[in-house]
Amino acid sequence: MLLQKTFYVAATFSAALLFSASTLAAPSTKGVITSVDTLNNIINVEARGGQQKSFALNPQSRVIIEGAAAGISDLRTGHTVKISTVKPPQEPTISGEIIAINHDDSTAKIKDKKTRKVVTVSLDSSVNVLGEVNTVAALTKGHLVTVRLK
């Protein structure tokens, strides 16, 4: 699963604090920056206990130093940091077996594999079945699918 990482650095030259404004209780890692790769947007951190961790900054990542917006190039080896990661919101899905399908209005009744409840869903023009893209017209009763709920 892809994780979005949001970085904030509130720092003096030797101390930095990273936190997420959108999720204050986000999982975090504290440690010291051991390297900064500005070409690939990666920082390596020695976490508490000596564990080495790498963090890739993406376009949504934010770096704040002493309250001001900054970039990865402003981070230095030796900065003490706290990095919080934020998972993107998950779209609700249903996974299960198609027990009935209506090709005319692109709807299907799916028996949820977890709850065993039957849910009627509207299908997009293409659907992934076992990792392959299929058209709704190719779907039949018995297919195992995962459908994003809207």
From TrEMBL:
Residues 1-25 form the signal peptide. Keywords: Signal. This is DUF5666 domain-containing protein.
